[in-house]
């Protein structure tokens, strides 16, 4: 059994012409760091898949600064306009290719984070606050997932 953690980036600067260049605000950095502390205590991811957008990269860096990763990849399929089926298929392929990685952290954006949860665990499409993480249990042999919960920076205990 594997764990998939799907995380929305922390709070970012307002919309601008170059959406990919938006950066985290100070609050966004704090959200990502807080969730990183929670991750280190409760889940300890060993694999990371992250959007190429700056705010997602910054979130991943803040959230994993105290975590040792075996696998780390930037993925163009998990941008805000990514296709959830493609992203889910790619994630499942990576999980199969890296059997030693048991806990996968995916850092991306709305709306794909919600759609990705639904793609993996149909009928569950949570709305993510900034910095929030959905926890999914994944049976790689049956290729079936079970949505467990969602956690936000303002409601986690460290």
Structural summary, described in words:
The protein has 158 residues and is an alpha/beta fold. It has 4 helices and 6 strands, in the order βαβαβαβαββ. Strands 3-2-4-1-5-6 form a 6-stranded mixed beta sheet. Helix 1 crosses helix 2 and helix 3 crosses helix 4. The longest helix is centred in the first third of the chain and has 17 residues. The chain is globular and about 40 Å long. The protein starts with a strand and ends in a 7-residue tail after the last strand. 40% of the residues are buried.
CATH evolutionary superfamily: Phosphoglycerate mutase-like
The percentage of residues in β strands lies in 15-25%
Could you tell me the mean pLDDT?
96
Radius of gyration: 14 Å
Keywords: Hydrolase
InterPro entries: His_Pase_superF_clade-1, His_PPase_superfam, Mito_Ser/Thr_phosphatase, SixA
Pfam families: His_Phos_1
Organism: Pseudoalteromonas lipolytica
List keywords for this structure.
single chain, 158 residues, alpha/beta, Rossmann fold, 6-stranded mixed β-sheet, 4 helices, protein histidine phosphatase activity, Mito_Ser/Thr_phosphatase, SixA, His_Pase_superF_clade-1, Histidine phosphatase
Question: Can I get a quick summary?
Answer:
One of its GO terms (molecular function) is protein histidine phosphatase activity. This protein has helices at residues 26-42, 54-63, 84-97, 112-120; strands at 2-8, 47-50, 71-74, 103-108, 133-139, 144-151.
């Amino acid at each position: 059994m594997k764990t998939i953690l799907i995380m929305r980036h922390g709070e970012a600067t307002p919309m601008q012409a170059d959406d990919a260049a938006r950066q985290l605000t100070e609050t966004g950095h704090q959200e990502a760091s807080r969730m990183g502390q929670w991750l280190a205590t409760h889940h300890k991811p060993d694999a990371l898949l992250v959007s190429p957008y700056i705010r997602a990269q910054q979130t991943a860096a803040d959230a994993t600064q105290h975590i040792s990763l075996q696998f780390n990849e930037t993925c163009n399929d998990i941008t805000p306009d990514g296709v959830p089926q493609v992203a889910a298929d790619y994630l499942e392929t990576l999980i199969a290719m890296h059997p030693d990685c048991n806990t996968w952290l995916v850092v991306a954006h709305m709306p794909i984070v919600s759609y990705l949860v639904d793609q993996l665990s149909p009928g569950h499409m949570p709305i993510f606050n900034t910095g929030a993480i959905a926890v999914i249990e994944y049976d790689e042999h049956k290729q079936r997932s079970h949505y467990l919960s969602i956690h936000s920076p303002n409601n986690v205990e460290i």
